[in-house]
Amino acid sequence: MRRSCNLATDVIRILGARQLSWLVQSSVIVERHPQYQPAVEPLVAKYQQMKATIKNERSVYNDFELAAESKKDEIIKERKQKFPPKNKYDLPQYFSSADEKALMDPVQNDDYLPLKPQGTSNEDKQSVHLIKPYSSVFLIVKSDDGWTFPHKMVETEKSLEEAAVAAVESHPSNQNLKLQVSSGLPISVHVNKYSNKYQDHTNRTGVKTFFMKSKYNGGNFTGESFRWCTKSELKDFVPKDVLKCVEPCLK
Fold this sequence. Notes:
Layout: H1 7-15, E1 22-32, H2 42-58, H3 63-82, H4 97-103, E2 137-143, E3 146-148, E4 151-153, H5 160-169, E5 179-181, E6 188-193, H6 196-202, E7 206-216, E8 226-229, H7 231-234, H8 240-246
Parallel strand pairs: 1-7
Antiparallel strand pairs: 1-2, 1-4, 2-3, 2-8, 5-7, 6-7
């Protein structure tokens, strides 16, 4: 049974009154998966094609062989009609070993060819699909504290999933970006405990940030306060302690 992850109330109910001073925040990791197959090294491509050929030859009677057999029958029938036997002793060879070899020559598999993005117009240059299309990219936004993942405080009786969606949909830079939360449960948590002086000032112990994984589902942000980064690029923007929490869960 799927359990709703309402951390705003769960923290209060499970851990006692002392935890009332903790702020609960939901941060969403929006991932756009690779759009194109990366280019394959020639030697690797040749090895993959050899494996496919061997697998094809070891099959008992696969679809390719069935198609070839059907085509062979059509060729023989067509040749018999075009060149009928002259007499009962005339036994022409309607299908030679050379024909067999040509028919069974495997066609190059497109799966091993590197796919490339199609040409696009100027209007499509900012499309999320064209940003580093051979890698997964993640959305980060610029806040007062620097670059980080979209986030929002969890209101009472609201779930982490609802707050994660709201963090993106209500962001000022959101033009029409949509996402699909992958799971109702967080993939990681980051704890930021305030100093004693700041605790006295705010009457809060600190902030607990729960990270939710989501899938990009169309649209984009606008302006200068966002960017799409690969996993390796995140370290140049996201704080180290935050990245340490989520990096093992990123592809």
